[in-house]
Give the backbone structure.
Amino acid sequence: MSEVHREPIETIESSPNHEGNVLTVLNLSLVTFLVLLGLSMVAPILPTYAESFEVSYTLVGFVVSSFAVTRMILDMPAGLLSRRYDKKKIMISGLLLIVSSSFLAGFAPNYLTLVIARMLEGAGSALYVTTATVFLAQISGEEKRGQWMSLYMGMLLLGAIFGPTFGGIIADTYDIRAPFFAYAIITGLGVIPTLTLPRVVNTASVAPSLNPKEVLHDMRVVLSNPSFLFVTFAVFTTFFLRTGVRTTLVPLFAANNLGLNASAIGWVLTVGGITTAFTIVPMGSISDRIGRKIPLALCLVLTAVTTLLIPFSIDLLTLSAVLGVYGAVIGLSGPSAAYVTDLSPQDKLEISMGLYRMISDFGFVVGPLLLGFLADITATPVAGDPHSGLIGMIPFVVAAVILVTAFIVLLRADDPIRRRNQAPMI
């Protein structure tokens, strides 16, 4: 019986080797900014909102983490779907799922409904973010891949910077449910520019199968590259730090050790976000010239040093200064997605990006759980205070050790861009 060959499902209007049109990159970046803006808007009020259903702190924490858990589980399937079907349709489906889940969360009559809404939101985020990353990887030519991907990451970061401020204002002006509705509206607006994106050719010459054996084979091919594993471990570590240190340890240390209020803590985190935004975008262009490994390696070792300085802060000014440096060195990791793309088989980008997102989101899940647990069991109790106690050095030391380990591992990774730029001209 003869095999039936099918044409690629996606219209060939853009070559995967095409150096991305700046308007297309800005389009993707704008929508990602809107998604992260909305996500960050609900972050400050989410624990309080969950607590309003009279549940324990453990269940409050589950509401926060359920989004990341679901996204981590679905990152790989999302990459596989983007390999077979129209990427624009998948991205729009993800956006609409986020919109629906945000309305559901805002109208949630009980705790279980809120958890379901958060899980649906994680599913929508997996569909959109993973597919958008694949889309960007395909349209970014090798010469400008670092520049375009760092621009994309910079817009993502800007959404995370300004979202908490807007969310707090909206909640104070209306009520605690209002940020969810604002999130739904803002994300819904992202559907409009997504509709105008060009269609890109599939990475395979024929419509690829989703046969489990073939998928597992492609995953083994991607994971058989040691450099891919080394780099994704480094990226896992940076994501681990983002939620474990910046989102968990820093607010706890600022509130319990330094006695700072919520506004002051928000300012400290904003300072770190602003300095990251200043370094992350130009670092993409620099990495196109010097390679990806040097910036990422510097990020790991300098972040380890800066992390150890955090518990020595004595007031708002010193903590702001340390977080400013911390944010700037985190920005050196901007070309990490481009690095993963460089090391990926170009006919298996969807598989590679799915694995990359899944491993990264695993860092999102593990970071706050591990470092929060270490902070809890090593805290110094304070008589009369309701919290577990003063945050000690141990969780920061553990974080620094993990970063140094990732740095040592990364040194063994290949750097195709650096090798290409150093090759003698014939």
User: Anything to note?
Assistant: The chain has 17 helices and no strands. The domain at 9-199 is CATH 1.20.1250.20 (Growth Hormone; Chain: A;). The two ends are 49 Å apart (CA to CA). Residues 342 and 416 are 7 Å apart (CA to CA).
